[in-house]
Write a structure and sequence with these properties.
It holds the Pfam family STAS. GO terms for molecular function: anti-sigma factor antagonist activity. It comes from Sinosporangium siamense. This is Anti-sigma factor antagonist. The chain is built from four helices and seven strands. The C terminus is likely disordered. Helix content is 42%, strand content 24%. The chain starts with a strand and ends with a helix. The strands form two sheets. It has a five-stranded mixed sheet with strand order 1-2-4-6-7. A two-stranded parallel ribbon has the order 3-5. The protein is α/β, with parallel strands linked by helices.
Length: 105
């Protein structure tokens, strides 16, 4: 997982998996990113291949923490497989997903 700052936002890149085996470390890093930065928190999921319920819970929890800090959590470059999970669970209605057109601009 990588964290970098860019034009009023932080970008956090998630690795290959966000599941029960990885959430503890990812949760800590996401929460530290929320607490230490300002502006939008962009979570780049381009490399993500697998997510489970605990991983989804970390994203929702991080969104709540970001909202409480006056920030927005935005998912960027969501792979089609992961987007299907968000749609099936209806989390696409809860989590902000950056459109492909906005990501290119």
């Amino acid at each position: 997982m990588r964290v970098r700052g860019t034009k009023g936002a932080q970008v956090v890149s998630i690795g290959l998996r966000l599941d029960a085996g990885t959430v503890a470390g990812v949760r800590t890093q996401l929460h530290e990113a929320v607490d230490s930065g300002s502006g939008d928190l962009i979570v780049d999921l381009a490399e993500l291949e697998m997510i489970d319920a605990t991983g989804l819970g970390v994203l929702v929890g991080t969104q709540c923490r970001a909202r409480d800090a006056g920030r927005h959590l935005i998912l960027r470059r969501v792979p089609p497989r992961i987007m299907r999970v968000l749609v099936v669970t209806r989390l696409n209605r809860v989590l902000r997903v950056e459109s492909a057109m906005a990501a290119v601009a």
